[in-house]
Amino acid sequence: MGGNFVQETLHQGKKMFSWTFLKNLMLNPAQLPFVACLILVAELILNILVVERVPYTEIDWKAYMQECEGFLNGTLDYSKLRGDTGPLVYPAGFVYIYSILYYITNQGENVRLAQYIFIAIYLLQLVFVLRIYIKTRKVPPYVLIITILTSYRIHSIFVLRLFNDPIAVLLLYVALNFFMESKWSIGSIFYSLGVSVKMNILLYAPALFFFYLINLGMKDTIKQLFICGIIQLALGLPFLIGNPIAYLKGSFDLGRVFDHQWTVNYRFLDVETFENKCFHLTLLAVHILLLVLFMPMCAKYFQSYCRLRYVQKQVQPQIDAKNQQVKGKSKLKKSVKINPSQKEEEILSKEQEDFLRSFESSIAKQSGKGVKKSSKAPKPVEVEPSFYSINYDIVSQLFILPMFIVNFIGVVCARSLHYQFYSWYFHSLPYLLWSNNYSTMVRFFILALIEMCWNTYPSTSFTSALLHVCHVAVLFGVYKKISSELRMASKVE
């Protein structure tokens, strides 16, 4: 018995570590749930090592604490909330979150504790990011292992710099997960909370508006916009009462001029051109033009998403009813097998039962003890009933891709990208690259070049130009594939 158990265990172990199993584990997106757990464990270990081994570099943390200290001391006029890096330029949600961190970290002095809090924030974000990849089944697991674990800049942004960008992006990914589950109001709340931490989350707004409109209609779209607005109003109310102009100008300043010193994407421009309003308006025009180009395709994706979700609602009850029927039949069979003696009592007479007992007794005497074990008839192999299911999670591709595209367009047309802005779109890059027809080698090459550009400090004219080339390549590849797929779909229709 023990020997059989050991042999079976070894057999299962060999099967588990066979080349076929490992290959399937790395290449099959359906295996991502298991790989995702490994990624989270590896990231926990890696981030702890980074915090313990790599020196912390002060950039904005102290300024954040100074800005929140003014608020905690009773100052509600946004124009008077300042830090070493200048005036407060983030909405009210930022103030509340970093005020909590101010208390937890002993007025910002316990930086190491703050770093460990940001490890938790990063791991939590990864949970929601990986959940999107698990549902969409778009990207092979090995791609996520390579890209997530090897990015120096992303780990630096989260646990060595303590920027507010990761918190805003975390809330955004939470919202996307709720939207995928058709939990519109909760998704809207988290989306608005993300905007309240940093304004870059508004880059998703054009796609989200069309998503509301196509899936919910005008009435419910207004309801969701109201939810988003009321969250902003509630969070900003103390500051709006104190000095509304200062709050709106400080937290949602669309005309803010960035410091050329920190730019990653426009190092090749001189300071005068970089700060020129005509240049900013040109980028805005390009942004709008790209949205006009992509939005009809995104709308078609949303329409298809809406139709398939409708089909799911119609079909799923029938599938559930069929499975319930199968389950009921299975229970009935088991109940029949539990009491076979009842049948025997009805069929066999007392004389027949006595004959069988005496026959079994004589066989046992002739065979001896050793045969008693084998005298029992082998148990019949029970076949588990097969249940019906359709994987509708993959439909989420029709929602996620447009959302990632619209955000990416905003990044491509940004007036300036600072190093922490990499977190705005890093985790969507594998999805975008695996949504085009480039070869795997080209995709990894583009990912490597983008990572190199973000890791070059200070940025150079070459790396800035190269970053634009990579961005355009990604955008063009996605556009080409989507347009060809939609043309093919129109022919089928």
Automatic annotation (TrEMBL):
Chemical reaction(s) catalysed: an alpha-D-Man-(1->2)-alpha-D-Man-(1->2)-alpha-D-Man-(1->3)-[alpha-D-Man-(1->6)]-beta-D-Man-(1->4)-beta-D-GlcNAc-(1->4)-alpha-D-GlcNAc-diphospho-di-trans,poly-cis-dolichol + a di-trans,poly-cis-dolichyl beta-D-mannosyl phosphate = an alpha-D-Man-(1->2)-alpha-D-Man-(1->2)-alpha-D-Man-(1->3)-[alpha-D-Man-(1->3)-alpha-D-Man-(1->6)]-beta-D-Man-(1->4)-beta-D-GlcNAc-(1->4)-alpha-D-GlcNAc-diphospho-di-trans,poly-cis-dolichol + a di-trans,poly-cis-dolichyl phosphate + H(+)
Transmembrane segments: 32-51, 88-104, 116-134, 154-176, 188-213, 225-247, 279-299, 398-419, 462-479
InterPro entries, alphabetized: Glycosyltransferase_ALG3 (IPR007873)
Pfam family for this entry, one: ALG3
Record bears the keyword Transmembrane helix: yes
Protein keywords: Endoplasmic reticulum, Glycosyltransferase, Membrane, Transferase, Transmembrane, Transmembrane helix
Top-level enzyme category: transferase
Compartments (UniProt record): Endoplasmic reticulum membrane
Membrane topology: Multi-pass membrane protein
Pathway stated in the Swiss-Prot or TrEMBL entry: Protein modification; protein glycosylation
E.C. code: 2.4.1.258
The organism's place on the tree of life at top rank: Eukaryota
Protein name in the entry: dolichyl-P-Man:Man5GlcNAc2-PP-dolichol alpha-1,3-mannosyltransferase
Organism: Plutella xylostella (Diamondback moth)
